Structures are given as structure tokens and as C-alpha cells.
Amino acid sequence: MGGKIQNKLYLLFAFLALLVALPTLISQYFVYDNYTQKKAWPIIDAQVIKTRIVGKRAILPEITYQYQVNGKTYTGKSDLQTPPFGLRNKRDITARAILREHPVGSTLKIAYQPQNPAISTTGLHLPWNFYMKISFALTLVIVALYLLLQYFRKAV
């Protein structure tokens, strides 16, 4: 009797693992696809025109920049993909260090969408949490496959 319950638990946990893993993998596919599209955008230098620290709990640097495309000036904002977690003091120190690296008047590499130059990004690399989410989801898939193997092995 205990074997049947254990066997059903394997199936239940495998299903739950897949229920979490598959949407995560799908969402990260779209993150990767979005990144590869942006990677094809033209990259130019933008000038930093304003810097400040924003947020009370998730303290982040905010850099406002200006750039020109075909003689027209555009403005964008970025936190330079700074992770919004950790101790409050550490986030504040990190934000201030980033703003020191990018003072007003300095230049910053940005990419802009060719069809609509008003859309720009400083995110020229995959986000910091992309690989973490992919690793987590793949681990869940491996666990689910192992549990399914156990389920079918015991069911026979």
C-alpha cells in the first residue's frame, strides 16, 4: 500500500515540477528572443544628462541620457540592469558607485530600435537573472524526469 502512495507522490511532484519549469522556460525563451532582436539594433554613444538614486526599498541608480539619430534628439532612462535585491545599504553603495562611473556629461553605449529611434536600451547583455532562471527550470525538468522514471519503473 505504501508503495502505491509513494508512486503517486512521484507523479504528483513530477507534474508540479513541470508545471513550474515549462512556463519559466517559455518566458526565458521570449527574454532571449527579445535580447537577440535588440542585439541587432544600432549601437551609438549617448550623453548622460541626469543621474539620481530612486526607490526606497529597491534602491537603484537612474541614468537619464540623450542621443541623436538622423538629427533628432531622443531621451532615455536606465538603471543599467542593476539587481534590485540585497541589503539596503549594499544596494545604496552599489547605486552610488554606478552613478560615479557615469557622471553627467559622460557617454554611455546604447542601442536604439531602427524603426522607432525613441525606443532605446542600455541592456546590451542578457539580464542578470536569465541564467539563474534557466538553471532552475532545467533542474526542475531533470527532477521531473527522474520522478517520472521512478513512477513508471514502479508501475510496471
Strand order of the largest sheet: 3-2-1-4-5
Compute the separation of the termini in Å: 15 Å
Uncertain runs with pLDDT below 50, 5 residues or more? none
Helix percentage range: 40-55%
Q: What order do the helices and strands follow?
A: HEEEHEEH
What structural class results from the helix and strand content? alpha+beta
General form: elongated
Oligomer: single chain
Q: Please tell me the overall pLDDT.
A: 89
Count of spatially separate domains: 2
Give the number of DSSP strands. 5
Strand content: 25-35%
Overall radius of gyration: 23 Å
Total helical elements:
3
Tell me about the largest β-sheet: 5 strands, antiparallel
Question: Care to describe what's here?
Answer:
Residues 61-121 form the DUF3592 domain. Keywords: Membrane, Transmembrane, Transmembrane helix. The protein is of the alpha+beta class. The chain is 50% helix and 27% strand. It contains three helices and five strands, in the order αβββαββα. It has helices at residues 2-39, 88-101, 130-155; strands at 43-54, 60-69, 72-78, 107-113, 116-121. Strands 3-2-1-4-5 form a five-stranded antiparallel beta sheet. α1 runs antiparallel to α3 (130-155). It starts with a helix and ends with a helix.
